[in-house]
Amino acid sequence: MNQAANMKLTFLTEEWSQSNKDGFSILIRQLAIELSKLENVEIGILIPNASTQDKEDTKKYNIKVFEPENLTGFEPVDCLQYPPEGFSTDFIIGVGYKLGRYGAAIRKKFHCQWIHFVVRNAEEEAMFQNYPEAISEGQKEHTVEVELCEKADLVVTVGHKLNESFKSALRHCKKEILNLIPGIFEEFIDENQEFRDSKRFEILVFGRGNTEDFELKGLHVAAEAVAQLNAEHDLTTYTLKVVGAPEGKQEKLAEKLKSHMILPSQLIVRSFYKERRKLAQLFSEVDLVLMPSGTEAFGLSALEALSAGVPILVTHNSGLAEALEKVPFGSTCIVDSNANWADAIKKVWKNLKTRFQEVDMLRNKYKAEYSWNVQCAALVEKLKSMCPELENKCDSQDERDSSPLPLKQPKVHFDQEETKKDDHRKMELKVVSSGHSPSTSGKDRAESATGDEDGIPLINHKRLTGVGRTNHVQKGQTRREMPDEAPSANTSQAIGKVTKFVQLAKDLVAPAQLKDDAITYEIIVERMREQLKPERSALVARYEFDNQARNSGESLSHYVATLKHLATECKFGEAMQTKRLRDRLVSGIRDSKMITELLKVKLADLSFDLAVQKCLAIEHANKDFQVLQGEQGPGTPINKPDTVKTGEEEATSKPPPKAEGSRGLGKLKNIQAWIQVKEDAWPRFWKARPVALARKPAVDEALRELEAEGVIKKVATSEWAAPIVTPVKKDGSVRVCGDFKVTINSQLEVEEYPLPHIDDIYASLGGGTLFSVIDLRHAYLQMEVEEHSRPFLTINTTRSLFRYQRLPYGVASAPTIWQRAMDQILQGLPGVFRCLDDIIITGHTIEEHLERLVAVLKRLEEYGLKANREKCKFLKSFVEYLRHVISAEGLHQSPKKVKAITEMPKPQDVTQLRAFLGMVQYYTKFLPDLATHLAPLHRLLQKDVKWLWGAAEQASFLVVKEMLLQDMVTYFTEDL
């Protein structure tokens, strides 16, 4: 080990002044430069065939250059394992699988320590590569990299994504792993990007210098998105620049791209850029950089673009996306699905000026969040702890400086007057909002999070001078103070509206603040527009349009108006829109007379207007006919007995017991829910999530209904608070649910209580001939929560804090709590199967069935529970439950589910095969010797088996499908 006071770190690298195809040389360069700024640290690089430019550039940073011996017959990179004479170091650093291999050899020869940086996951990338044996090669490389990590003295991963992956891979050896998030690359940050107002929108995407990584880098996704945008025929031409084609094979890559619908006029293909100077120039040519990769360990090329100040869009499956999520405006750069790339690109184009302003702030915030200096200092401190002799040598110097690793930079002196001016500029709107300082107590936090009883944040009216920026008082003027007396009703109303919009603006730019210089008026307006009037995805609108059928009782005029409204958001184009409207009208009217009349007209002659005219005429004629004949509503003659069909028999039945009572929510008597938390549980308080303005009335109405029914109760303060989610139900109303997974679910002691399985039906329903199903209305909400458990179930909404008085959905322990209660309520009743909110009743005869049904209804009434009348079914010959059909004959497969399985196409990969096997597994009891028949398919799931779908696999696939189509029944027996 070196005995000098300074710590010596040496990087293995192939390039310094130029970039390599993997992009790792920029990471090595920036790391070396940043580490060289620290005191008591000497940086060197071991590089083959160093150029004159390399040597001149490294001198700027006091970085030493070591060239390995140049051995005949060896590739330059292989010479790295033979450093020159006089070489010494304390730590050798290998970045990536290729360079990391030489770390062990150098460690053994020079008695230093070896640091291995992990920069990719070859096994994951191989799933998106299309050359022969890509997956097996990826697995081999990944296995070797894991072994390198096991042998290294220290492992450092680049980004959270890789950190989680390799923590799992190295869990068996308990290897300590550090995580480094690459910061902004300084050599690009001087490139000042400017907004260009042009009808030509330039988009850049990087390849990796070979065609095998075409899908891995998502080049097909980029091409299809640009082609889709140009097909919309707006005034903008979108051009895709693909950089990274193999040298001399640009034409081959261009042809492959054109096969994905992009036109030659929309495409530019270039070879790989080695010189970073040219790369910086390239960034100045484009308006947007894409990273649509299938997977990306981190995404250094996109980070280079961000460093240069260019707007970026990145795949959600990348380490950079995880880093961006924690930075203001970072989430706007993430695309979560391949189907959304075109919309995301268009959104950037429509707001390009704003995006350039945002990217400047994003770059600064990212730089502060992921500081190179802070992370490098932490790394060196870790290395010092690994070498006590180095730490002792440096102690005397460290004691003279409070900063353990100060930068080698002169002190910066700030002008006091300028500082005062900056402070004055930050004296802006003072709002007591949902944010809180670290010193705020739990009670105060809750009050500040909810404001007054109406949910409006409290505001200091005397300091309310504008939205976002304060108008400064000119010299010689005085600011007129607001009167101390209470404001008028109109003034209070106006202040309340302003306050709500201010709070909305603050939420939309969070975690940034309105007073930040980068938060301009244009950014606030754009955020407001996106929130209050968001642009819908054309794909979603078209899906809704294609599935919009005429509802029962809906007038034709209303249905036509609905179709026209949906069509405006589908972006069909004028020529296509009328045809699509006509086709949707014909397929959605659900009226045989209207459809028959329309089919009489030739397709070429049938316009949308003519179709509407003919359908309206038929609708009016039907109404006139009903007036002449007299109104007759649907119903059953009073004296006609009800009948129930069971197979071929038609049995006259006694009427089922009359259900009485109100439609309100029931209240379970004598049983309450107890929420048990872990001993080390600590309160978690979340702010209320913003609600879209269009959905807010529905959310408020849902909260009022829950409050009126006693499900929730408004409270002023709480230590616990979960945000809410508001899914839209089929009828257009909103369901309010607490998002308890972020608060209490991880803190719960969940009881191990068995939930019913389909096999349990055998024991409960054996010998039954008719079946009834009782569905309990909002089952969990009928159970009260005991007093001490209620604080855990508090939700934070834009109106106020509310505390559940009843057991809500979404609590991890709710199913077991409810199932235990149902077992207790219905115990001792034969022929009854209970599973959560459903109760199935049967009997050997109709009389016995009705007796059991009455007994269940009485038991429910005794405990105060209420059923959902619309969802209950009585005296049916069969019922479908848990993917099975239950009848007098026994237990059948569900025809719908069997049809779905038998119509599944041949699996193309392991994921599709697992989906098929998972669905088949539900019907194991109907398929004798299933394991034998599935053996060839299960073999493909083994870790070391290459995917190859041959004759044996196809035969197994077809045999299992054929077995499912046979009419097999599992019979009930009295002995079960």
Automatic annotation (TrEMBL):
Q: Where is this region: Disordered?
A: 393-458, 471-491, 628-664
> From what superkingdom does this record's organism come?
Eukaryota
Mark out the compositionally biased spans (Basic and acidic residues): 393-402, 412-429, 642-652
Sorted alphabetically, which Pfam families does this protein's record hold?
A: GT4-conflict, RVT_1
Residues in Reverse transcriptase domain copies: 708-886
Q: What is this protein called?
A: Uncharacterized protein K02A2.6
Query: What organism, scientifically named, is this protein from?
Result: Stylophora pistillata (Smooth cauliflower coral)
Tell me the classification of the organism that encodes this protein.
Answer: Eukaryota, Metazoa, Cnidaria, Anthozoa, Hexacorallia
From the UniProt record, report the name of the gene that encodes this protein: K02A2.6
